Amino acid sequence: MSLTQLTKKDQSFGWKDAREASFQELKRNLTSSPILVLLDPSEPFDVFCDVSYQGLGCGLMQ
């Protein structure tokens, strides 16, 4: 059961074991070092950008 289900309109809030596992996995992924690999030039690239009054962020992903 994903955490995004909790963001839907009229969705009742229930913290079940599956959601706890999803939350723990999300925390682990956000607090561990990223795995960097060489980009494959034959595959398409995705650029993600976001800006605010405090700063900006960008990512190049494949």
What does this structure look like?
With 62 residues, the protein is an alpha+beta fold. The chain has one domain (3-61). The protein is built from 1 helix and 2 strands; from the N terminus they run αββ. A two-stranded antiparallel sheet has the order 1-2. A hairpin with a 4-residue loop joins strand 1 and strand 2. The longest helix is centred in the middle third of the chain and has 15 residues, at 17-31. The two termini are 26 Å apart. The model has no long low-confidence stretch (mean pLDDT 87).
Supply the number of helical segments. 1
Class by helix and strand content?
Answer: alpha+beta
The assembly state of the depicted protein chains is single chain
Major β-sheet strand ordering: 1-2
Mean pLDDT: 87
CA-atom Rg in angstroms? 17 Å
Query: Which term fits the overall shape?
Result: extended
What are the segments in which pLDDT stays under 50 over at least 5 consecutive residues? none
Number of strands: 2
Helix content: 10-25%
What string, H for helix and E for strand, traces the elements in order?
HEE
Terminal CA distance? 26 Å
Count of discrete domains: 1
Question: Biggest β-sheet, characterized?
Answer: 2 strands, antiparallel
Strand fraction equals: 15-25%
Keywords: Multifunctional enzyme
GO molecular function: catalytic activity
Organism: Cajanus cajan
InterPro entries: DNA/RNA_pol_sf (IPR043502), Retrovirus_Pol_polyprotein (IPR050951), Rev_trsase/Diguanyl_cyclase (IPR043128), RT_RNaseH_2 (IPR041577)
